[in-house]
Design goal:
Helices cover 59% and strands 10% of the residues. With 167 residues, the protein is mainly alpha-helical. It has a single domain, classed as TIM Barrel. Strands 2-1-3 form a 3-stranded parallel beta sheet, with helices on both faces.
Length: 167
C-alpha cells in the first residue's frame, strides 16, 4: 500500500539502477498492487482498506519503511500499534481479528487520507481514477487485491474501457 508519489520514487530508483548496470530500464515492468473497494458501502470499503493497512503497519520494521516511503507520520503509526485491541491480542491483528473488527479499533487511528492515497476506494469511476494515478506515476500495470474478483467486476470492465493516454 504505497502512494503514487512513492510509486514514482520507486520507479525512478529502479530505472536509475538499471542504467547504472547497463540494463535497459524499459525491459523492467513495474506492477503496482492496489487495494480496491469499488462501489461498496462505507463500512465494507473501510474494512477492506483499513484492515489491510493496519496489518501492514502493525509490523514494526515493514510498517516503518512503508510509512516512511509514503511520508506518513510515524507517531500516528505508533499510536495505532499501541491501540489496546492490538496490544492485548495474542497474535498480530489480522490473525486475531476479522478485518471488520479492526475498523473502529486500531483502524480509527489511521487518517482516511492515507487510505485514499494508496488505495482505490469509492465509486467505480473514482476507483478507475485512483488506479490511473499509479500508471501516471510510472507503473506499467496495476493489480488489484483486498476485494474479490466479483466485487471488482465492474471496476475491471471500466478499467478496460478507460481512455488511454500516451503511455
Amino acid at each position: 500500500m504505497i502512494t503514487p508519489a512513492a510509486t514514482a520514487a520507486a520507479v525512478g530508483r529502479i530505472r536509475r539502477a538499471c542504467e547504472r548496470i547497463d540494463r535497459d530500464p524499459r525491459r523492467i515492468r513495474v506492477v503496482q498492487p492496489v487495494v480496491t473497494a469499488p462501489a461498496m458501502d462505507e463500512f465494507e470499503a473501510r474494512s477492506i482498506s483499513t484492515g489491510r493497512l493496519v496489518t501492514y503497519l502493525q509490523y514494526p520494521y515493514y510498517g516503518d519503511v512503508l510509512a516512511s516511503a509514503n511520508a506518513w507520520d510515524l507517531e500516528t503509526v505508533q499510536r495505532m500499534r499501541q491501540h489496546p485491541q492490538l496490544t492485548s491480542a495474542p497474535r498480530v491483528g489480522d490473525l486475531t481479528y476479522h478485518r471488520h473488527q479492526m475498523v473502529e479499533g486500531p483502524g480509527s487511528v489511521i487518517p482516511w487520507s492515507w487510505i485514499q492515497d494508496c488505495s482505490a476506494v469509492g465509486t467505480v469511476d473514482e476507483c478507475v481514477t485512483s488506479l490511473q494515478r499509479f500508471i501516471d506515476a510510472g507503473a506499467d500495470e496495476v493489480t488489484t487485491y483486498g476485494s474479490t474478483p466479483r466485487q471488482n467486476s465492474a471496476l475491471i470492465e471500466a478499467w478496460r474501457k478507460r481512455p488511454r493516454g500516451a503511455r
